[in-house]
């Protein structure tokens, strides 16, 4: 098996220059300046496909978090930010989007080098998605409306009247804690609505993938945001993340990551009753009805699970197929899986890069081994690929004979592994689809659209797609039911997360 190679000599001058800056000076962004971490400690950020060093990034600690939160608090109360008109705030967000667009090639290259994903996925999927967040919420700054309220309060002093209204205010200092699977997109999904709402932010990227957040920091300075409005502290979750979650100067946490860490944040954040938005894990079912259009269904589900190596919260990881078309589906999906080219994300022919780390690749392999021991059958893939300096690759994997109670069916694997199970009865398959602690997303594949909408109503999930999977856009609210999260991102609901409502009731 060949893994498509990469020649580091083809790295762009812009990426090389940034890696040199990131590795020496551009460490933590605090109060509009680049600062070194108090502890003087660093984490090697490596290319997950080769293990080669990209740049050492700062391993921040609680002292750096104190500085960042103090800076965000000062900026929140500063005239430069608090009194900036909504239109100017919106123009700043739009300017960030313009700058990201100007730097899109190098941002996509850095995302690929740092995270492993195919360049195509970064350049034409995630980066445009991140830019769209800033443009979408730029338009919201001038539309954060309160209401006037006709009251029925009986007690009104003689000759006076009551005038009551609500106003929207920024919730305050936001800690944005994001994962490694789609680093810049996840960061943008927090920064854009938080800044549009008038909040200030301390961004903590994943220790595995901090480079594009630091690059974005440079663009935010260039765009002209006042000092301290956005601060960036890199480092580990149990150090920087924990310190942010416990910090009394943080008003809100916007978190995307695993359900286990989301639960830990509930405890850590209780001291000052921080507001919390949690975008957590998933185990999303796809239901294939007998009349599904296979020309959409097979590639749609393959993309849903294999894109980004299955490291996608909404990945279509559990597929239930009507028994009348089950055999054909397994065969066609296995062919799709086998045809995907594995290699370095920067090789233009690569469909699938490595998983983000050895830990993640071993974890996926362990799930597959455990499933086989429990009686599951691997019909495509199932193997880790290493060698010739390459590491962390995992073949797109299709597995059958998986019972509902198996870990393969119940737990989030976060790798390119899909289970396929036949069904005969609609009530039975809805029961299976809902038999999960998660409720993030689902898809239904059928040409019978009335039936599709009836099924969509019965699936417990924050998003249900019909004849597609993993379709996102800033205007489509996205969030988890059950243990997949609290609150919604995107759309009007996405900005409400960063706003408080104040009622003013006056006798005039
Ligand atoms: P993770 O929960 O391990 O880490 C996420 C972030 O939290 C990282 O920045 C990490 O450093 C930080 N963190 C870790 N421990 C912490 C602690 N004790 N206190 C504070 N912060 C801490 O998740 P991950 O492995 O980086 O990402 C994969 C997970 O993210 C998957 O479960 C996936 O489903 C989920 N995810 C969800 C969505 C969504 O929108 N629902 C999107 C993408 C990823």
TrEMBL record:
<dbReference type="GO" id="GO:0016620">
    <property type="term" value="F:oxidoreductase activity, acting on the aldehyde or oxo group of donors, NAD or NADP as acceptor"/>
</dbReference>
<feature type="active site">
    <location>
        <position position="279"/>
    </location>
</feature>
<dbReference type="InterPro" id="IPR016161">
    <property type="entry name" value="Ald_DH/histidinol_DH"/>
</dbReference>
<comment type="similarity">
    <text>Belongs to the aldehyde dehydrogenase family.</text>
</comment>
<dbReference type="InterPro" id="IPR015590">
    <property type="entry name" value="Aldehyde_DH_dom"/>
</dbReference>
<dbReference type="InterPro" id="IPR016163">
    <property type="entry name" value="Ald_DH_C"/>
</dbReference>
<dbReference type="InterPro" id="IPR016160">
    <property type="entry name" value="Ald_DH_CS_CYS"/>
</dbReference>
<feature type="domain" description="Aldehyde dehydrogenase">
    <location>
        <begin position="38"/>
        <end position="504"/>
    </location>
</feature>
<dbReference type="InterPro" id="IPR029510">
    <property type="entry name" value="Ald_DH_CS_GLU"/>
</dbReference>
<dbReference type="Pfam" id="PF00171">
    <property type="entry name" value="Aldedh"/>
</dbReference>
<protein>
    <submittedName>
        <fullName>Aldehyde dehydrogenase family protein</fullName>
    </submittedName>
</protein>
<dbReference type="InterPro" id="IPR016162">
    <property type="entry name" value="Ald_DH_N"/>
</dbReference>
<keyword id="KW-0560">Oxidoreductase</keyword>
């Amino acid at each position: 098996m060949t893994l498509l190679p990469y020649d580091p000599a083809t790295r762009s001058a812009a990426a090389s220059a940034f890696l040199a800056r990131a590795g020496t000076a551009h460490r933590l962004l605090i109060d509009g300046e680049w600062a070194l971490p108090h502890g003087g400690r660093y984490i090697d950020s490596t290319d997950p496909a080769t293990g080669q060093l990209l740049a050492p990034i700062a391993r921040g600690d609680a002292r750096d978090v104190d500085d960042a939160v103090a800076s965000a608090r000062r900026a929140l109360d500063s005239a430069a930010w608090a009194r900036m008109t909504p239109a100017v705030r919106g123009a700043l967000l739009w300017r960030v989007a313009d700058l990201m667009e100007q730097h899109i090639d190098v941002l996509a290259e850095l995302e690929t080098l740092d995270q492993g994903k195919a360049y195509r996925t970064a350049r034409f999927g995630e980066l445009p998605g991140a830019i769209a967040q800033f443009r979408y919420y730029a338009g919201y700054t001038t539309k954060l409306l309160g209401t006037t309220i006709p009251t029925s309060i009986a007690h009104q002093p003689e000759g006076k009247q009551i005038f009551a209204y609500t106003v929207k205010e920024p919730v305050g200092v936001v800690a944005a804690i994001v994962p490694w699977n789609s680093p810049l997109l996840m960061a943008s999904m927090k920064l854009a609505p938080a800044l549009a709402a008038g909040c200030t932010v301390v961004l903590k990227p994943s220790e595995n993938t901090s480079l594009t957040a630091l690059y974005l920091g440079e663009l935010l300075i260039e765009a002209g945001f006042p000092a301290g409005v956005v601060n960036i502290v890199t480092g580990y979750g149990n150090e920087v993340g924990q310190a942010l979650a416990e910090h009394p100067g943080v008003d809100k946490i916007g978190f995307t990551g695993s359900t286990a860490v989301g639960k830990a944040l509930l405890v850590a954040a209780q001291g000052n009753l921080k507001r919390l938005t949690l975008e957590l894990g998933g185990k999303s079912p796809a239901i294939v009805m007998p009349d599904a259009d296979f020309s959409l269904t097979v590639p749609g589900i393959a993309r849903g699970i294999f894109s980004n190596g299955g490291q996608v919260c909404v990945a279509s990881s559990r597929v239930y197929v009507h028994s009348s078309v089950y055999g054909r589906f397994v065969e066609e999906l296995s062919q799709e899986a086998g045809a995907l080219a594995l290699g370095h994300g920067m090789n233009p022919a690569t469909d699938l890069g490595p998983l983000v780390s050895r830990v993640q690749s071993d974890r996926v392999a362990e799930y597959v081994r455990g499933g086989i021991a429990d009686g599951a059958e691997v019909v495509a893939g199932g193997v880790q690929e290493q060698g010739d300096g390459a590491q962390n690759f995992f073949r797109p994997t299709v597995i059958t004979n998986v019972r509902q109670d198996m870990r393969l069916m119940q737990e989030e694997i976060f790798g390119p592994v899909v289970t396929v199970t036949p069904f005969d009865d609609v009530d039975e398959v809805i029961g299976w689809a809902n038999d999960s602690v998660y409720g993030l997303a689902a898809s239904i594949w059928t040409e019978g659209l009335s039936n599709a909408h009836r099924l969509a109503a019965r699936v417990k999930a924050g998003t249900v797609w019909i004849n597609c999977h993993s379709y996102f856009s800033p205007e489509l609210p996205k969030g988890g039911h059950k243990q997949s999260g609290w609150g919604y991102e995107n759309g009007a609901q996405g900005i409400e997360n960063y706003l408080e409502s104040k009622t003013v009731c006056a006798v005039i």
